[in-house]
Amino acid sequence: MDVSEDTLATLKEHYESGQELTDEELDLIADTSIEYLRNILGFFGETSSEIDEYEGDEGELILDVNGGDLAVLIGRHGKTLDAMQSIMSSLVNVGLGFHYPVVIDIEGYKNRRRAKIQQMAHSAAERAKRQHEAVRLPHMNAYERRIAHMTLAQDPDVTTHSEGEDPNRSVVITPLKSR
Question: Are 103 and 110 in contact (CB under 8 A)?
Fold first, then answer.
């Protein structure tokens, strides 16, 4: 996609100053991101997938790929998807000249995974309260740990922290003393 350096500089200035981006600027970010994603998908032989774009809860651009044989793009425990996400983020950041949050999802995998992590966090928090001892969740990447922490942030009866070294880092849920 050919975009002038002036256009990118203006876009960067608007974004970094906190100004609300125009529809045209958001379309430029989406079009640029989709072009990079289509190129990545091409390396996997996936040329006919649909890409749905929408804004996430935290202002990020979510690109959800659907159609075709996409299980290979998710990989075991989402490892391939995580790697593809890293590559995509780097490409978009270099292409735009600034960091704009773009998330790749494959057939809603991340939404399903988010719901599962939230359910695990709530269940572990209840167990920690019931047993009056800390409960450790399975090893998770930084994105998934963040979901667990945010899920329980408003629970006044538990606190959370992470322990361990990546890739074996886990969220620990600790019950607070009764007041």
Answer: yes
Q: What is the pLDDT of residues 6-31, one digit of tens each?
A: 888 889 898 888 888 888 999 999 99
Which superfamily does CATH assign the domain made up of 111-175 to?
R3H-like domain (3.30.1370.50)
CATH architecture of 5-107: 2-Layer Sandwich (3.30)
pLDDT tens readout for residues 32-64? 999 999 999 998 888 889 999 998 877 889 999
Total Cβ atoms within 10 A of residue 61: 20
> What is the residue whose two structure tokens read 């740990």?
145
Bridge pairing between strands 158-163 and 170-175: antiparallel
